[in-house]
Design brief:
Distance between the termini: 57 Å
Number of helices: 14
Strand order of the largest sheet: 10-9-8-12-13
Strand content: 25-35%
Largest sheet: 5 strands, antiparallel
Radius of gyration: 24 Å
Number of strands: 13
Shape: globular
Oligomer: single chain
Length: about 350
């Protein structure tokens, strides 16, 4: 990674702050001893696709001898690295230079690999499919794949209009891959509104969140949840939640049963309507529409459930599992954030 960063400064700098660079984190690592070598290797196909990093991780878990002596210690936990996408059988690949301009590709002239082989696939959604779409033979829950982001995009107007994943998640070819965990990114993909409409018999409160610019369902996976809440404050200062809705695909911990699916397809809206009587409206001082994003909701439930039963773990796995599980739970619990707060005052 460091050698790539010596020439590709902008890309490397962006990559360091991404979730891709942290695909091998405590939330991933704690599970490996419990799912075994074969299951771990399958997970590493996306979370740590480089053969060298797989070898080092498997060796650390006692499942093989490390066969990458030149691999810098610690870099195996960098997750999806430059080589994961750009290096194949000793050759370097990348997108065609944009407008013939290589300045944004190479920030200095010390090119150690003699250039690269341009491929159109780097700017096509198909490139992201391997890790963001379940295979056709994969398990389904209520007829739905656990990962269907590519499929959701493929069925949308975005695909028909030739808007690729990279257009939103890698604008101007920035290696950021921002998504549900980034509030500014989410704000660009949704529209929110709050109306309080006085009527002869009282008033109606209408709150809306529209999936106006996300090229797949909002949210896409079963992990995140988005909470919509409408609160009122009376003249006396009393606050009350009068309406709420959860957006997401809620599954049980075993990923066997669908509890509900309220995700929004592109262009679809979620509306919260509340009618107030004349008396209620006369006492009203303020209305708030709050949107809260919990990017790791499923992980919070799953990690907490496992922590509750940590005493049942195999003793020989506890030194690896427990510190990683504890940190993963802490990270998941701190991920929730407020996206929008709209305010109406009388």
């Amino acid at each position: 990674m460091g050698s790539c960063g010596s020439c590709h400064l902008q890309q490397f700098g962006s990559w360091k702050s991404t979730l891709h660079s942290r695909a091998i984190g405590p939330g991933f690592l704690w599970q490996l001893p419990r799912i075994g070598k074969h299951g771990s290797e399958n997970c590493m196909n996306c979370h740590s696709p480089n053969p060298e990093t797989k070898s080092v991780l498997l060796s650390r878990l006692g499942w093989g001898e490390g066969s990458a002596p030149t691999w810098k210690s610690g870099s195996e936990e960098n997750g999806v690295q430059c080589a994961s996408c750009h290096l194949r059988k000793g050759k370097v690949y990348g997108p065609f230079p944009k407008d013939g301009n290589k300045d944004k590709i190479f920030q200095n002239s010390n090119i150690s690999h003699g250039g690269f082989i341009p491929q159109k696939e780097f700017e096509e959604s198909e490139f992201c499919k391997t890790c963001h779409q379940s295979p056709e033979t994969a398990k389904q829950i209520n007829g739905k794949f656990l990962m269907d982001t590519y499929g959701q995009w493929r069925r949308s107007e975005f695909a028909r209009s030739n808007v690729q994943c990279q257009n939103c998640h890698m604008p101007d070819r920035r290696h950021e891959w921002k998504g549900i965990s980034d509030g500014e990114m989410v704000k660009r993909g949704v529209q929110t509104s709050l109306q309080v409409l006085p009527k002869e018999e009282g008033a109606e409160i209408i709150s809306e969140l529209k999936n106006s610019g996300v090229g797949h369902t909002f949210p896409s996976y079963s992990v995140p949840k988005v909470y919509l809440e409408v609160w009122t404050e009376s003249i006396s200062g009393q606050k009350r939640k009068i309406s709420e809705k959860t957006l997401g695909w809620m599954l049980d911990l075993e990923l066997e049963k669908e509890l509900f699916d309220t995700r929004l397809s592109p262009g679809e809206s979620a509306l919260l309507r509340v009618s107030l009587s004349k008396e209620e409206f006369s006492k009203l001082k303020r209305v708030e529409f709050i949107v809260i994003v919990d990017p790791k909701e499923y992980y919070k439930r799953m990690f907490q459930d496992n922590w509750n039963y940590k005493d049942t773990f195999r003793e020989d796995t506890k030194p690896w599992v427990l510190p990683n599980l504890k940190k993963a739970l802490e990270e998941a619990n701190s991920a929730k954030y407020e996206l929008v707060r709209l305010d109406w005052k009388k």
